[in-house]
Amino acid sequence: MSNLFDVYPIYDIEPVKAQGSYLWDQNGIKYTDLYGGHAVISVGHCHPYYVEMLTKQMNAISFYSNSVRISLQEELAEKLGKLSGYPDYKLFLCNSGAEANENALKLASFHTGRTKVVAFKKGFHGRTAGAVAATDNPSIVAPVNYNRHVTFLPYNDVDAAENGIDDEACAVIVEGIQGVGGIHVATDEFLQTLRRKCNETGAVLILDSVQCGYGRTGKFFSHQFSGIHPDLMTMAKGMGNGFPIGGVLISPKFKASYGLLGTTFGGNHLACAAGVAVLDIMKNENLIDNAAKMGEYLMEGIRRIGGYKELRGRGLMIGIEYDFPVKELRNKLLFDHKLFTGVAGANTLRLLPSLALGKTEADAFLKALETEISSIHETTLNN
Ligand SMILES: Cc1ncc(COP(=O)(O)O)c(C=O)c1O
């Protein structure tokens, strides 16, 4: 019995060491990481350059408030703008994905003076007041969070978007690929319709890129496959490779003013050092291209193994939906094959590995999956 507030169902495994795409537990058992601690480990565990940047920063200065110049913030904003293809967008720094969405919704509301938010079924935007109200999961929306501002439309439904976004809408918030909802990729037509409707009605288009952003899909942002430009993009997870940091990229049409947004910890020295290290590594090691290449490699292997109902995703954001609950399959991958994976809903296995995943690690996963799928297949045939 511990004194922790018990909200997480956990595996009784304690990783005590990590390197690249591998983890070791307290008994020295080695695990291959196909999940990256839920899409967070972007450049690999304990990358030497990342460790060096953070150690140096820790020895120099870890924190001062946003009342002084922190040039690391400027370096991060410049590098992020360049690598993401949005050099003219401004950056607001915060600490998590939910907070990034909270600030994006506030900006949209300040900008338009409106309150109505259009969000999508099966979407997930975080657990703070505004973000959770825009999340389609009543079990995590407390009465105090519930508000009448949010309308949920079906995802990837062009007609619903055409009719459901009007000039009362302050924001349309959407994931380029729904993560928690099961790895559903937005179609080009859907995202282009959202862009056009926002242009017509004056609503602000927010692309929640917390899970599908930061190079994971083989482009910096997944919406870049569809050729649209959002007004606001939110990010977190991969941004700090484990150091808590979130951000909003903000189109030049938004005017900043002192006090409009703010945070104590957002943009602190350590978070920015982590953020800059991640962008440097992504660029120097071509990790976005690697995500595209390794994603294709994994997808090909999964297709060859077969036995699934649907294979979805882009780059290293992959969902394999089966026609049976995947809990046991995930446990077998973890305990028998020493492979970390994730799930989305009951029937979908979810892969969100580091963007630096190599062929050896991908092959280890494919071999284990093949063994387990053939064994499930044999059992079904024998029954
Ligand atoms: C798409 C998306 N938005 C927002 C969040 C919330 O991020 P955080 O847990 O950092 O608040 C998540 C977390 O899973 C997410 O997947």
Summarize the structure.
Belongs to the class-III pyridoxal-phosphate-dependent aminotransferase family. With 383 residues, the protein is of the alpha/beta class.
Commentary on this structure:
The chain has a seven-stranded mixed sheet with strand order 4-12-11-10-7-5-6, sandwiched between helices. The chain folds into two domains: about 15-45 and about 295-380, Aspartate Aminotransferase, domain 1 (Alpha-Beta Complex), CATH 3.90.1150; about 50-285, Type I PLP-dependent aspartate aminotransferase-like (Major domain) (Aspartate Aminotransferase, domain 2). It starts with 14 loop residues before the first strand and ends with a helix. It has helices at about 35-40, 50-60, 70-85, 95-110, 130-135, 160-165, 190-200, 270-285, 285-305, 325-335, 360-380, and strands spanning about 15-20, 20-25, 30-35, 90-95, 115-120, 150-155, 170-175, 175-180, 185, 205-210, 230-235, 245-250, 310-315, 315-320, 340, 340-345, 350. The longest helix has 24 residues, at about 360-380. The mean pLDDT is about 95. Helix 2 packs antiparallel against helix 8 (about 270-285). The protein has about 375 residues and is an alpha/beta fold. It contains eleven helices and 17 strands. It binds pyridoxal-5'-phosphate. Pyridoxal-5'-phosphate binds next to helix 4.
